[in-house]
Write a structure and sequence with these properties.
Blueprint: H1 2-6, H2 8-14, H3 19-47, H4 49-70, H5 74-94, H6 98-102, H7 104-112, H8 114-127
Helix pairs in contact: 3-4, 3-5, 4-5, 7-8
């Protein structure tokens, strides 16, 4: 997300957004993201974090593509920036558990414990 946020302050100034309005816009974004964080966690638990992450990435790509062509004045900039920020925060909430779900060693550790995991790794190294 760095390409989007690297020059956002300069672009906001170029379309006529004051820094006071930009701060209010970010506060609205954070408030909406905070309200949506619990429902996003429930959705991720129900439908799997990886699937939700794929849908979130598709939404982020489409909002970025659409915003790149539609931002012409301060109103569309504020609208797209808030929508993109909320979608970004929802994406991070949705995929926050996916690293644990994807990694097989962590599941092995959960089921059998650390000692079994270390013993299995030692056995693999002894064979080599």
């Amino acid at each position: 997300f760095m390409p989007f946020f690297a020059y956002i302050i300069f672009f906001a100034k170029s379309v006529g957004v004051s820094m006071e309005l930009y701060g209010r816009m970010k506060a609205i974004q954070c408030a909406i993201s905070l309200i949506l964080s619990d429902p996003m966690g429930v959705i991720a638990d129900r439908y799997h974090p990886v699937r939700c992450g794929i849908v979130g990435l598709i939404l982020l790509i489409s909002i970025s593509f659409w915003g790149g062509f539609c931002i012409t004045d301060w109103w569309t900039f504020c609208y797209i920036c808030v929508i993109f920020g909320v979608t970004k925060d929802c994406f991070f909430t949705l995929v926050s558990g996916s690293a644990f779900v994807i990694s097989r060693p962590s599941l092995y550790i959960l089921r059998r414990g650390w000692k079994a995991f270390i013993a299995k790794r030692r056995d693999c190294l002894d064979c080599c």
